[in-house]
Amino acid sequence: MNNTIERICKIYGYLAVQEQSGADFISSKELAEAIGTTEYTVRKDFSVLDIKGYTRKGYEVKSLKEKLGVKFRLNKERRACIVGLGRLGTALLDYEHFQNDGFEIIAGFDSSINKIERIQTKIDVFPVGALAEVVSSRGIELGIITVPAKAAQEIADVLIRAGVKGILNFSPVKLNVPKDIVRLDMDFTNALRFIAAKFVIQNK
Amino acid sequence: MNNTIERICKIYGYLAVQEQSGADFISSKELAEAIGTTEYTVRKDFSVLDIKGYTRKGYEVKSLKEKLGVKFRLNKERRACIVGLGRLGTALLDYEHFQNDGFEIIAGFDSSINKIERIQTKIDVFPVGALAEVVSSRGIELGIITVPAKAAQEIADVLIRAGVKGILNFSPVKLNVPKDIVRLDMDFTNALRFIAAKFVIQNK
DNA sequence: ATTTTTTAGTGATTTTTTTCACTTATTATA
DNA sequence: TATAATAAGTGAAAAAAATCACTAAAAAAT
After folding, report:
1. Of all nucleotides in the shown strands, which has a C1' nearest the CA of B58?
2. Which residue, A54, A79, A92, A89, is CA-closest to B195?
3. Which residue is closest, via its CA, to the C1' of C24?
4. Where do the domains of chain B lie, and which CATH numbers do they carry?
5. What global pTM score does this model have?
6. pLDDT in tens, A67-119
7. Å from B53 to nearest chain A CA?
8. Regarding beta strands B59-60 and B25-26, do their DSSP bridges make them parallel or antiparallel, or are they unpaired?
9. Do the Cβ atoms of A106 and A123 come closer than 8 Å?
10. Does B16 lie at the interface with A, CB-CB under 8 angstroms?
11. What is the rounded distance in angstroms from the CA atom of residue A50 to the CA atom of residue B114?
């Protein structure tokens, strides 16, 4: 199920690009190539989701994107915040792609008042003490954690209590979250490890 | 197979921490909890890899880490470079965890000479024209791409021709690489999409 | 010394995921 | 108008992954 969701998210992103460039129809084969899977898998995913295409034409870009948007609520604009305004956190604050893709970073938090005062960004920044209040009052649904490892779990707890639905975790620790909350880890070291290990195994 | 590699990488990271804190033995159950899987899966992975533990004690931390290190070559120090010294790229340049975990960022590249001159870091930075030469002469095995989408494929091509084994891609495009090269995408927008979509599906 | 408890090891089973093989529909071409 | 080609749709098969159910070993407790 996770695999399907992941593929659908990639497809959705690709469709957004295709829509911009004016494409009307797209085949399962092209979609498969774009996201790195097979045409069979794409068609099977759509089949399960009860999404229909047109023989010899493929899927209509606009309506496909619309349908996926509805089914997975990817059409809804969602608010996010970043906790931890170190170098990575501040880089993400101004990451321009989020805005174009249905996500809006509307707040940043840091434990250092000093840092907050020095930061140059259009986005509102707050001391971490304001986290719970700002998250719930502004309807923030997603929390991005870029604090040091030792503070990460505590921040996650506060975010969840304040009502976020999911956490994107850049700290290299495994966060405990209730099972209705979605957590996704982006551990750069693990990513490099994976690449190195996979290279070793597959070219052995 | 990818799943196993991913789990092993996480386990390896966890073992490094445990080793530091002086733990001698660790059970499949604790490992499973630490990386978010089941004890069965951990034991099955080890069983396939012909890694043995001790009844009623678990696995010896030191020798387990050693064995995984050898089997997946995670014990070898590997050199990496970052191409694209925007905010994300420069944040990664100084990402302190890499050093402690067997990866060394030894060069950064950017197309803007201006940017290169202004950057404050201990790591050597070069104009992107020097990429091929520096990568091959310094034995860089991993390339981290943080350039804008439109430049990403070209950079990937140069990196691969210069001999990198794997690419960690932060740009939001699907890179074409030969199949013996490992590519891992870190697309932040997709990550947020996945979190949002999964929340919708699982709490439906 | 015996029993209980804990934890690994692994073949078998189950579940999930992917791929295949074939049908059907529609457009393009001869 | 007939034929060829293309691409979706989907049940069935295969492959992959995870889980279970059990055994065995060793330590701890009685």
Report:
1. C7
2. A79
3. A55
4. 2-71 (1.10.10.10), 78-190 (3.40.50.720)
5. 0.96
6. 999 999 999 999 999 999 999 999 999 998 888 899 999 999 999 999 999 99
7. 22
8. antiparallel
9. yes
10. no
11. 53
